[in-house]
């Protein structure tokens, strides 16, 4: 099996495309199952965030796997496959490993170095584990990607420039409102993961008083209690907005929750940060006088916080080292079936010869037959030990797959999935 990652992000697609591609948490198990039901896809993990939708897959061939993944994404989003292709990035094998590690380290995020992606990747891996669509290859990839992300944050200053998309959004809001959010009245609509992150970030920024509303009142109340904010009924949204200077929208609604009618009669300036995909804010809201709307598209074009080159370089070095470490493991794992097949072949030969011996020498006692059997097996094990250990070592080096192929050829071994006729060396650059 080979690794394949296919996705769209703020780098390759606009918000209109991303909000059609986004996969709600409740839909992810069904999409995962649909992926592994495809002929070329053996394992799958789906990552869906406010600015990225991506499939990590173990596939039996590049072209077939890519076609299968694109077909599922097109079916889910309702976007024609030929139209969708223009918004997708594709990474294969080594490039897929490098991409997944860069994603986990925050190098591919809208706000470089943000740590929220680690939690999102962990949730995606958990969903695949619960749905049983992650096998040995993706288990190893996801576990290593999470480890790389933790290492990048622990060993470098990559996250000093900005902790999340929320931080970048608040920078835009502060600039719009005169450079300081301290003492400004805030409202967060939504009490999920992004809503909670927004409340935490607004609190650290000195925004207050702070109100929280959510369709599920108990969730809003628990979040408000944790941060000393005030929970307000969702039905009272117009009154809450009338008092706010900054509104953060972060719900999982498929329809706009903030419309022009909601803001009717409002007088003072307002900054609305729409961090939801699909968007929570109707397009006409941005046309109202005194109202500034910043969504994911706006953040993508106004990224202001970038880490120093030295910090980015340090993370890139970690990623490069970890990619090579993973590839060494992968090459070693790929030769294991060939070594097992060789040992099985040897055992079959020994068993056949022992049967012939039994037929020729029926006078041997059971003890004598056992002695001969043990001796033959020990001889075979000793003969195979050094070459199989050495081929594992060689296989872990760059280009090591040739040694496993040579072993299969020399001993005429039939190893399932050992050939990669449909493989290509590397597809796609950094997206």
SS content category: alpha/beta
Please identify, by name, the CATH architecture of the largest domain: 2-Layer Sandwich
Radius of gyration: 28 Å
Work out the helix count: 15
Q: Determine the N-to-C terminus distance.
A: 23 Å
* CATH evolutionary superfamily of the largest domain: Glutamyl-tRNA reductase, N-terminal domain
Q: Give the biggest beta sheet.
A: 6 strands, parallel
What strand order characterises the main sheet?
7-6-5-8-9-10
- Give average pLDDT, whole number: 85
CATH class category name of the largest domain: Alpha Beta
Quick description:
The protein contains 15 helices and ten strands.
Would you give an account of this structure?
- It catalyses: (S)-4-amino-5-oxopentanoate + tRNA(Glu) + NADP(+) = L-glutamyl-tRNA(Glu) + NADPH + H(+).
- Keywords: NADP, Oxidoreductase, Porphyrin biosynthesis.
- With 431 residues, the protein is an alpha/beta fold.
- The protein folds into three domains: 2-160, Beta Polymerase, domain 2 (2-Layer Sandwich), CATH 3.30.460.30; 165-301, NAD(P)-binding Rossmann-like Domain (Rossmann fold), CATH 3.40.50; 320-411.
- The chain has helices at 15-21, 28-36, 62-77, 81-84, 94-104, 116-131, 136-155, 165-176, 193-204, 217-227, 237-242, 296-301, 309-360, 366-395, 401-411; strands at 2-9, 41-49, 52-59, 89-92, 186-189, 210-213, 230-231, 246-249, 270-274, 291-294.
- Strand 2 and strand 3 (52-59) form a beta hairpin.
- Helix 13 (309-360) runs antiparallel to helix 14.
- The longest helix has 52 residues, at 309-360.
- It is elongated, with a radius of gyration of 28 Å.
- It starts with a strand and ends in a 20-residue tail after the last helix.
